[in-house]
């Protein structure tokens, strides 16, 4: 499951980009949202890595 984790931020950023385009904004206008998405996914990845370390 961890090996497929890279798909989550790609999908979330894709949905965010689609939302911005539908509302008439450019991707540059939603840069803060992209940063939040990447930070959220980094935290989740860090949690999973710590859990792998703890349980092994």
**Main beta-sheet strand count, sense and barrel state:** none
**How far is it from the N-terminal to the C-terminal residue, by CA?**
16 Å
Helix content: over 70%
Give me the Rg, rounded. Answer: 14 Å
Number of helices: 2
Question: Any idea how many domains?
Answer: 1
Structural class: mainly alpha
Can you count the beta strands? 0
Globally, the shape reads elongated
Mean pLDDT across all amino acids: 93
SSE string, helices as H and strands as E: HH
Strand content: under 5%
**In terms of per-residue confidence, which ranges show pLDDT below 50 for 5 or more consecutive residues?**
none
Keywords: Membrane, Transmembrane, Transmembrane helix
Transmembrane segments: 6-22, 34-54
List the SSEs and their pairings.
Layout: H1 7-22, H2 31-55
Helix pairs in contact: 1-2
Characterize the structure shown.
- By secondary structure, the protein is an all-alpha fold.
- The protein has one domain (about 1-55).
- Helices cover about 75% and strands about 0% of the residues.
- It has two helices and no strands.
- It is elongated.
- The two termini are about 15 Å apart.
- Keywords: Membrane, Transmembrane, Transmembrane helix.
């Amino acid at each position: 499951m961890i090996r497929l984790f890279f798909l989550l931020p790609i999908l979330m950023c894709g949905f965010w980009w689609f939302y911005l385009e539908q509302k008439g904004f450019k991707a540059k206008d939603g840069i803060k949202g992209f940063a939040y998405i990447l930070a959220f996914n980094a935290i989740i990845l860090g949690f999973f890595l710590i859990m792998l370390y703890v349980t092994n």
